[in-house]
Request: fold
Amino acid sequence: MSRRAAGILVLFAGSMLAGSVSAQDLGPQVRKLADGVYVVAGNNYFSNSGIVLTQDGVVVIDTGQNPIEARKILDIVKKLTPMPVRIVIDTEPHPDHTTGHFVFSPPAVIIGAAGAGESMRGREREAPQRIQQLAATSPEMKAALEGYKFIPPHVEYNQKMTLNVGERTIELMYLKGVHSEADTAVWLPKERVIFSASAFVSNQINILRPFVTIPDILAAGKMMKALNPEHVVPGHGPPGTVKIFEDGEQYYALLLERVGKLMKEGKSLDDIKKEVKMPEYVGWANQDRFPTNVEAAYKMLAAR
Ligand SMILES: [Zn+2]
Reply:
């Protein structure tokens, strides 16, 4: 064999080992954000997931909208590397991010913010038939649920945690009062990629639960923007840049202005809910959630 041919063979074997399958080969949902860092974008506002390859195994961020998606993510990991998924990080404890835990664990250790397990157990108590109902939605879903087990996080952290996995540094940051009882932003400082949880979702109205506040959401956006990320992957909706935070800031500023104006006119919350309109955002998904946004704006302004 010529030296050149041998060299090409070595290169080829090397690229196979490094798992440098091109992102196109992994399907239209997969985008490479940095070397070894991928996003699996959920179709139609399904939750987004991240795959981070390291020398010591794989870290997965969120396990997909449902078990069908979770299995797709695991298949993508297997195309990228023969290494196991060692860690799963939850950006939030809701079922559309966590029902797929069992697909990865064991062997993966699951990590969430303090309160994540309690939130998951609460949902199980509220809807004990949830998995049976999910299985009944289609034969594919039933098959994907094979071996289902309820798995809350093995590890819960407070405020902040740094993971050093292989050559990677992964920072977990608790986001207070932005979406669920236990939201986590996942920051890769060297790669400048942030998985920003559901504090902001792109092109979509978010659901603001009673414990969620607009000042907390805006503070989270400010904090994450200050990190100067190159890529922003929200919990749902198309991944992008810090523009996702800026779009959200603009939206809340306009909402507060309009709700505030009606409050000054002496309107009640019920009246305001009927009257306030945001025609600039009719293109955003989940318009049915808008009343929860009006409530949060009213609560914030009334407290001033
Ligand atoms: Zn959620």
The two ends are 79 Å apart (CA to CA). The longest helix spans residues 243-264. Confidence is low (pLDDT under 50) at residues 6-19.
